[in-house]
Amino acid sequence: MTKPDLFSYLDYRKYLRDVHDALKAKDRKHSFRSFAKEAGYTSPNFLQLVIGGTRNLSPANLPGTIRALGLNKQESEFFANMVAFEQAEGFEEKNFHYQRMLRSRRFTEARPIEKGQFEYLDQWYHPAVREMLVHREFTGDPAWIADRIRPRVTQPQVEKSIQLLKRLGLVKIDEASGKWIQTEIQISTPPEIASLAVANYHRAVLKLAAESIDGFPSEARDLRSVTLGIPQSRYAEVKRKMEEMWREILALSEAGGPVEEVYQINMQAFPLTRGKDGKDA
To answer: What does DSSP assign to residue 232?
Structure first.
């Protein structure tokens, strides 16, 4: 059994588990105890606890773990970021370490589609470019799209966005008409990356919503907000109503007709108070 490729992993616990299995298959004398001794752990079953998720790798025991794994400098840096990514408590910290992981060519080669999917949601203008590609007046010049998107984006950004959309299969050239068309391919990422990318996307579009107050006249935008006091049992009904409205809005877009304008439509509902038990809802 060969040693697992570190750069094909996103979960360091799975990597440690697979390395342990590989070492044990190669050498029957290998055990959690022998690994702990080599890594300098005080507890002989510490690796087992880490793999099981009941303990974390701390900065103090990270160097010993790297030494026991036999990682080189590039692998050590990647492993350290993978550990920090998994154990990060907030989205900003997770995002920081995932971006550092993406710097590794071997990681992006091992997970190219995942990298592209993260990039798609990481920048708010990629979905806008996708819509503008099928605009009735688009003739193929990226500068035309860059000039019409607000806030302004550059032509190189649009060109890179088109290449990303094409690489992910979200758009393609129609052989009959020679024009861009959208495909039905869905963006799909591992849960831990999906939640990170979606969080980045929502932060960006909410910022756009705030900027639209000064950036567009009132007749060009529609911003609504209400603070409701309701029984907790009714919140599920509120969410159902929002989902019904969302499906109706999407149906209007899917009903056909040429793209003439691109709008950003957001819907949010979040608690402003704590629950009866003192915890966030």
So the answer is: G
The alpha carbon dihedral of 176, 182, 183, 184 has a sign of: negative
Of 119 and 41, which is predicted with more confidence? Answer: 41
Residues sharing a CB contact under 8 Å with residue 74, sequence separation 6 or more, in sequence order: 104, 106
Type of residue numbered 102: L
Q: What residue numbers bound the domain in which 82 lies? A: 6-104
Q: How confident is the model at residue 279 (pLDDT cuts 50, 70, 90)?
A: low
Give the C-alpha separation, 187 to 264, whole Å. Answer: 18
Give the chain's domain count: 1
The answer, yes or no, to whether residue 277 has pLDDT greater than 90, is no
Rounded-to-integer distance, Cα 270 and Cα 57, Å:
34
Question: Does residue 45 carry a pLDDT above 80?
Answer: yes
Neighbours of 132 (CB within 10 A): 24
What is the DSSP code string of 171-230? EEE-TTT-SEEE--PPP---HHHHHHHHHHHHHHHHHHHHHHHHHS-GGG----------
pLDDT at 281: 56
Q: Is 272 part of a structural domain of the chain?
A: no
